[in-house]
Write a structure and sequence with these properties.
CATH class: Mainly Beta
Strand content: over 45%
Largest sheet: 5 strands, mixed
Number of domains: 1
Order of helices and strands: HEEEEEEEEEEEEEEEEE
Radius of gyration: 22 Å
Shape: globular
Distance between the termini: 76 Å
C-alpha cells in the first residue's frame, strides 16, 4: 500500500532531512591556502600560519608528542587552548620535558614507555626542551582556535573548514617575523594568501 505524502512518517523524515541539510550548510567552511617565503630558508620548518580570533567554543582534544631518536615528533605540534598533550618516551633513555615559556611547566624525568600529560590553558608557543639532552628541541603551538597549519618543505600550507567571515591571518616563526594580512573566508571556497617572514 502506498503511503500518502502527508503521512506523519514522511513528514518526520522530511523535517529530519531539512534539519540535517541546514546543519551541514551552517557547518560548511572555507579553505585558506598559500605559500610562506621564509628568509633565510633554514628556518622554514619552524613556521606556522594561523587565523587569529575566531569566535566559538571548541571541544577539548587530546594530542600526542613523542620522543624517539632523541627528537620531539612532530617538531611542531598544533593544539587549541584547553587541549591536553600526552608526552611519550619511545627512546631507551630517560627524558625530562619542560618549557620555560608563558606560565612554564616541568613534567619531571620519565623513562622509556612512560607517559606524562599537560593541559594548555592559554594560547601561545611553548618551546619543548629536555634538561638531560640539551640538543633536543620542539614546539607546541597553542592557538585560540584550531585553524592553523605548519608549512611543508616547500613552504606551502592549507587551513581547512574555517567558518565564513573576515579575519586576520598571521604567521609564527621561531626566529623571524612577518606582517599579518586580512582574509575573507567564504563557505565552500578557497582563498589564497601568500606570506613572507624575514629578519
Amino acid at each position: 500500500m502506498n503511503r500518502h505524502p502527508s503521512s506523519p512518517g514522511l513528514r518526520l523524515l522530511a523535517a529530519g532531512l531539512a534539519l540535517t541539510l541546514g546543519s551541514m550548510a551552517r557547518a560548511e567552511g572555507g579553505t585558506i591556502s598559500g605559500t610562506v617565503d621564509v628568509q633565510p630558508a633554514k628556518y622554514l620548518e619552524e613556521t606556522v600560519v594561523y587565523v587569529k580570533s575566531v569566535p566559538g567554543a571548541y571541544k577539548p582534544a587530546e594530542h600526542t608528542l613523542d620522543q624517539k631518536g632523541m627528537t620531539f615528533t612532530p617538531h611542531i605540534l598544533l593544539v587549541t587552548q584547553g587541549d591536553t598533550v600526552k608526552f611519550l618516551n619511545h627512546d631507551t633513555v630517560a627524558h625530562n620535558v619542560y618549557s620555560p615559556d608563558n606560565e612554564g611547566f616541568n613534567l619531571g624525568t620519565f623513562k622509556e614507555n612512560e607517559v606524562r600529560t599537560h593541559s594548555f590553558a592559554k594560547p601561545g608557543v611553548y618551546t619543548q626542551l629536555c634538561s638531560i639532552h640539551p640538543e633536543m628541541l620542539g614546539y607546541v603551538f597553542v592557538g585560540q582556535n584550531p585553524f592553523a597549519a605548519a608549512v611543508d618543505k616547500k613552504g606551502k600550507y592549507v587551513i581547512k573548514n574555517v567558518p565564513p567571515g573576515n579575519y586576520q591571518l598571521a604567521v609564527w616563526n621561531s626566529k623571524l617575523k612577518g606582517p599579518e594580512k586580512p582574509v575573507t573566508v567564504t563557505a565552500g571556497k578557497t582563498v589564497e594568501e601568500n606570506l613572507t617572514v624575514k629578519r
